[in-house]
Amino acid sequence: MQAGKPVLYSYFRSSCSWRVRIALALKKIDYDTFPVHLIKDGGQQFSEEFQTLNPMSQVPALKIDGVTLTQSLAIIEYLEETRPTPVRLLPQDPKKRASVRMISDLIASGIQPLQNIAVLKKVGQETQLTWAQSVIGSGFRALEQVLQSTAGKYCVGNEISMADLCLVPQVANAERFKVDLSPYPIINRINKTLLTMEAFQVSHPSRQPDTPPELRA
Amino acid sequence: MQAGKPVLYSYFRSSCSWRVRIALALKKIDYDTFPVHLIKDGGQQFSEEFQTLNPMSQVPALKIDGVTLTQSLAIIEYLEETRPTPVRLLPQDPKKRASVRMISDLIASGIQPLQNIAVLKKVGQETQLTWAQSVIGSGFRALEQVLQSTAGKYCVGNEISMADLCLVPQVANAERFKVDLSPYPIINRINKTLLTMEAFQVSHPSRQPDTPPELRA
Hints:
Helices cover about 50% and strands about 5% of the residues of chain A.
């Protein structure tokens, strides 16, 4: 790895890692990937080495500018503040910024944590699928209703934002848990629009250095 | 209620509502409280009226400047951007801002959602206490380790920040679930320091308009 080049500790399938990968791609920040396999070896995120980087034992973590950052939204806000070009991920208007953060937090606090690997393990194998479907379902019902008043081409108006970086990976999780997306036409439409963009494609779980061959695009 | 005065939809015991109450107190923003009882009537957050305000059926929601905001951290960021004085809740330096947001997100995405009322109801009465103790315990172990490198008098250095607004209400939850705090000396010390401040006292669950008489300070 090149000195000074940012390093992203990432797992191909982690939706929180994917959020940051999209931000890095949109902002054209070159980086190296350090894969952390969340299943293998009982979870490489629990290794002593990784816990020094992130005591929460979660991906992503980003080494950049001489520091190690964790928590995907905190990382994205940092990238936005230090690298506002070429693409802004937060609008200028405070009320629109609030909408972007509300949607991002709805997903990042209200949905994803309730269906991540650690929680599903606690829930137990028999009920984890219905549990995941239920928490994603309630979250998406609320999100669809929020988007009715905020969405344009994207989650908030016609400019891409941090909210979109949360939406697409969460829809991928929903699909993995076989959630029926037909009750959520706005979520569905925005997700499809975003998936045509290069930044969402290069950052996709099917195209990462640690993607297993059988899941490669 | 006075026209133009902000209205906070709040539940005395909700840790997310408390975060926002502290922000409003620190920034000396006068507001009315509209209590939403999360238990009574099967949960008033599920009423049609409240779901129009917040489709996620969660407190807090804040009516301010002609809009209704939800998600506590999005609300606090909005208050910070529109009312930076008299107390700033985010430092100026981007790396310190990232530390504040990392700690805030660790609590707001990594701990609180896993032990809120809705999840504990799903978990079931018999196991909800051990579940809550376990998720708060893992979160606090990580948080204590993070604070070893960020904390001064408060969570990040010697200036109060959004991270502190997340810490105190989460410690109150921990106490309610009888989590032993002795393994977390830094969390404990910062919490005690903050609880001596007026903004944390007036916003305390024991002093809200909807606090039941038997729980009043």
